[in-house]
Amino acid sequence: MIAIGKAAMIGALTITLAACTTADSGQKQTAGTIIGAIGGAVLGSQIGGGSGRVAAAAAGTLLGAWLGSEVGKSLDRADRLAMARAQKAAYTAPIGQRITWENPDSGHAGEIIPTREGVDRETGAYCREFQNKVMIGGKEEVAYGTACRQPDGSWKIVN
Fold it and tell me: 101: which strand partners?
């Protein structure tokens, strides 16, 4: 886990990056920036040790924020709804099954593939890892993440 000081630094950097988005960028770009920054920070913090880990977390934050911003500003509400439906279906789909989504109005599409499942050693929660691909304007963006089932039966993306 990230130490409290490192987490505070990453959180401050995430908020700073979100503040850099322009007023006309819209909520989806801001949300994409924040989500991307958090995901990048988590992934970056898993690399190296000591000050190298802090640098990797900072670099991951910047890269994730940029990527999230680019995807976020391109996805509209209908895109996000279609992607959310696909994500929900992927929670119970067989491992390796491609769950696709498409918005014919925007031309955006994507797929979510559950890649691995198991029980979290710390929490005992049932979790699944996913590969998420999004096609925007002919360009593919790929992200990876993990979601865990909560005690109430809902799912929460944990990274």
Answer: 110
Residues 64, 83, single domain; the answer is no
What domain range is 131 assigned to? 77-157
pTM over 0.70: no
- Label residue 119 by pLDDT band (50, 70, 90): very high
Q: What is each CA distance from 95 to 115, 117, 131, in whole angstroms? A: 5, 8, 11
End position of a domain, from candidates 13, 47, 74: 74
Q: Which two tokens stand for residue 17?
A: 């990056």
* Mean pLDDT for all residues in the chain: 75
Return the axis-axis angle of helices 27-44 and 50-74, rounded to nearest 10°. 160
Q: Map tokens 């996000």 to a residue.
A: 80
Provide the 3-class DSSP secondary structure of residue 62.
helix
- More confident call, 42 vs 137: 137
Residues 65 and 85 in one domain: no
